[in-house]
User: Fold this.
Amino acid sequence: MRRLRILALAATLAAANCVPAAVHAQEQPSPESMEAAQALFALLFAHGFATLNAQAVEAAWPGIETALRTQRPNIDPATLADLRREFERIRLARLSEVVKDLPAIYARYLNAEDMRVLAAFYSTATGAKMLQAMPKVLPEAFASVLPRMQPMLAETQDSFLKLLRERGLLN
Assistant:
């Protein structure tokens, strides 16, 4: 019975890490906020997402080119260059479709004025530098943090269960 209570508490703690933050967001953004969010996101997409897409194409293309050369050993460099541009264009169009709902998320958390201020910032030299850096920073940051998340969650859960036991709240 004791183990079952501990397991139930552990499951509750684990589930707490999965509760969407959107629960606290404003439910329906105003038309003005949506317009500002779309303008801000268009700026972010044009810089950040397009750069991330180009990086993904850069990583994927050698394998694609190898497969094409295997099928067509005499394929010329101009055709390969054209196919690469088309691959990047198609991928960017699909990415645009995948992230089309993100402006609404921005609009739920930020008001129109905040988003206009952010767009103005990204139009400055420092903001432009930030937009250039983010496609390099984010993958590196995620690669650094993600492997440590599972152990951190387990350690947090263990420490909290220990605290509950020390305070007599859990047998």
Observations:
- Helices lie at 2-16, 31-71, 77-98, 102-109, 112-122, 125-166.
